[in-house]
Amino acid sequence: MDFQLVYSQIFIQLLLGLVSVIFAELVRDVYHLAGHYWKPLQSYHTLHHKAYRRDLSMTSLEMYKKAQWYNDVPEALVMVGSTALVAGLAQNYGMWLGCLYSLMFLIPAIARSQGLLLQTDLTHKPGDLVEIPSRWTVNRTYHWRHHFDQGNAYFCGYFTVVDKVLGTSLSLKGKVVAITGASGTLGQALMEELSLQGAKIVALTTSKDAQFKPGIEVLQWQLGAEADLMTRLKSVDILIVNHGVNVYGDRSPEAIQKSYEINTFSALKLAELFLSTVTESDHKAIKELWINTSEAEVNPALSPLYELSKRTLGDLITLRRLDAPCIIRKLILGPFKSQLNPYGVMSARWVSWAIVALAKRDFRNIIVTINPISYIAFPIKEFFQSLYFRLFTSAHTQVK
């Protein structure tokens, strides 16, 4: 017997089985999308949304059973039928794994619809949210957003691939977004792009003479007085820390102080203030912190103090991410034309569009640059630095 051939066939069957499971999940996501946009299914899928309170507990047993029978059972039947059809056409044993996987949804759904199984699935388990939304798979917090943040987003059932492709991994509609450095070139462009997405903008500026479009809430603040913004930050959904300074070639003590005060310590103070507002269960799902740390984290910016201060901020945010109570996104931006960099080669308008497009696809490290090295160097740097911090730091250390 040729054992190498046997092992090869087993591997191929397992691989095909995995493909069939992924196909089953894609079928489920497409059916879910149809439940929102195809009228014959909309009323049935609405039952599913009506079956849960904000803490994901049942509104009533009868509503829950009805939702299972008219939404979950048909969805699982389509999964079973589609995977069985593909497996039959392929005439391959491994492909039947997707059909068996789909039956694991159909049988419990039938039981729940008849009141024989009251324990719900993991993504609808009632109680407070304890994790931030996961990135590649759907956890309770991720799916909670579909029910109570924005119904026309967060469609995926287990793998988040479809949401990433469609740009529905993050909904900005109705979100209150506060932006520091709002009077700057990128700040202005971000406000315009976010407004197009339906966000409500709060411009945070240290400039007394800055002009903003009508309808934008404007708050003045001063360096060193970040705590004065605390009251407003409590009701902000997304804080974008975007302010900064570039002293170019100046290496005087005053330039060092100014660079770190603005680029590092002020940004950190605002970040910590915002993270301290994550106090409710749903805050873990809705609130986000975006930090503009710059491509200077991994590449020269021909401005040493800008590099040093931004790199320090980036490193500390990497450390803070390990215990963050909400999503933190880094904005790793290459040279765009602005007041800080009149020699930039990208337009702020295009950069802001790319930032929002990538955020909606749940990129946690948003890299926008013309330098291909950054797309390789930054993820490697971030992975190993995060690993180093995990190995040699702890969340709670007793000080003697």
UniProtKB/TrEMBL annotation:
Q: Which UniProt keywords apply?
A: Membrane, Transmembrane, Transmembrane helix
NCBIfam families of this UniProt entry?
Answer: PRK07424.1
**Top-level taxon in the UniProt lineage:** Bacteria
Tell me the InterPro entries matching this sequence.
NAD(P)-bd_dom_sf (IPR036291), SDR_fam (IPR002347)
Q: Which Gene3D superfamilies match?
A: NAD(P)-binding Rossmann-like Domain
Keyword Transmembrane applies: yes
Q: Does the keyword Membrane apply?
A: yes
Under the heading Pfam families, the entry gives: adh_short
UniProt source species = Aerosakkonema funiforme FACHB-1375
* Name recorded for this polypeptide: Bifunctional sterol desaturase/short chain dehydrogenase
Give the stretches traversing the membrane.
6-27, 93-111
